[in-house]
Specification:
Elements: E1 3-6, H1 8-14, H2 17-33, E2 36-37, E3 42-46, E4 51-61, E5 66-75, H3 79-83, E6 90-95, E7 102-107, H4 108-127, E8 134-138, H5 142-154, E9 159-163, H6 167-177, E10 182-185, H7 188-192, E11 196-199, E12 218-221, H8 234-239, E13 241-244, H9 247-253, H10 257-261, E14 270-273, H11 274-278, E15 292-295, H12 300-317, E16 321-323
Parallel strand pairs: 1-7, 8-9, 8-11, 9-10, 11-12, 12-15, 13-14, 13-15
Antiparallel strand pairs: 1-16, 2-4, 3-4, 4-5, 5-6, 6-7
Helix pairs in contact: 1-4, 1-12, 2-4, 2-12, 4-5, 4-12
Length: about 325
């Protein structure tokens, strides 16, 4: 059996967002039902290089298909300046769980962007107002693009406000989408007043205050993936209907990790996990809800589900390069 090698372009071509959203939703449900195995994300800290590696393995049984894989990903903030390389570089190995053959080795950076956007879309679908038409973005980096692409799949987004200190990044974002949306640069407060807000920054200090948000805003807190990061004022978390992706990860390295460790919020402030909402064990948005927040740290099951979509398309369309990887 041959293995597919899929570069960034091949991943982008075969990661059809509507199907990735469905697959990620299925992954959340499988995890909640106990039909998935996902050991804790493990870290290798490399202080001498101001970076780290993260290993994220998972297996899931989604009924009609099952899948296994592992993503090996880094965060090296000095890469752009020192080596002209991305801060984050990821590699995904997607395997047949029955015989362990690696079916595909694919670019994990593009895959991560797709599944992160899809996770926000799943949460937005359950927690945002039905007629949400405006999307705010705090951060105009690579993650902001798939936030808009994914959320626009499940809500009739018309107006987009993007806030970033880098005016060139804002201009590039606006230029990319101005033929499809009423998109403009603006302040954090203007972005936060939208129906849906996604924060996608590496900030270690709160950027969004309670006063910035509209009474009904749904917030996707996507940027905090390490213990020191925080994008939202803790007052928002205390007031909102708060939904997480995984308790261990979010309390260790998510948006809630700092206020949780300081005792500002506790488990009684957490409405539940997004998987619980997907399977119907917890409520999504109700008529009584105001602000809602989804704290996303990124789960390995999302990577495996997205890899499944990519591999299935690529194997049918001839995408990528086939090579003999496992000998007999």
């Amino acid at each position: 059996m041959e293995t597919l090698l899929l570069d960034r372009e091949a991943v982008d071509t075969n990661a059809r967002m509507d199907e990735v959203i469905d697959a990620v939703s299925e992954a959340f449900g499988a995890y909640e039902r106990g039909d998935a195995l996902m050991p804790a994300k493990s870290y290798i800290e490399l202080d001498q290089y101001n970076g780290d590696f993260r290993a994220m393995p998972a297996y899931m049984d989604a009924g009609e298909w099952d899948a296994a894989g592992i993503k090996w990903v880094n965060v090296h903030p000095d890469n752009p300046e020192k080596f002209d390389l991305p801060t984050v570089i990821g590699t995904m190995i997607y395997s047949d769980p029955e015989n362990a053959v690696p079916l595909a080795i694919m670019d994990g950076t593009e895959l991560t962007m797709k599944r992160t956007g899809a996770a926000a879309a799943v949460a937005t679908d359950h927690l945002a107002i039905e007629d949400a038409r405006s999307l705010g973005l705090v951060g105009a980096g690579v993650q902001s693009y798939t936030q808009l692409e994914a959320i626009a799949e499940i809500r009739p987004i018309e107006e987009v406000v993007v806030a970033d200190l880098d005016s060139d990044a804002v201009d590039a974002f606006v230029e990319t989408f101005d033929d499809r949306f009423d998109v403009r640069g603006g302040s954090i407060a203007e972005a936060a007043a939208c129906d849906v807000l996604s924060t996608v920054t590496p900030s270690t200090e709160p950027l969004v205050s309670r006063a910035d948000l509209a009474a009904h805003t749904h917030v996707n807190a996507m940027g905090a993936d390490a213990a020191a990061k925080q994008e939202l004022d803790a007052e928002i978390l205390r007031e909102a209907k708060l939904v997480i992706d995984d308790h261990d990860q979010t309390t260790h390295s998510g948006e809630i990790s700092i206020p949780y460790s300081e005792g500002i919020i506790d488990d009684s402030d957490i409405h539940g996990a997004v998987g619980e909402i997907v399977v119907g064990d917890r409520s999504g948005r109700t008529s009584e809800d105001g602000i809602t927040v989804f704290d996303s740290t990124g789960l390995a099951i999302q990577d495996v589900a997205t890899a499944h979509v990519i591999y299935e398309h690529a194997s049918k369309t001839g995408g990528g390069q086939s090579f003999e990887f496992v000998g007999r």
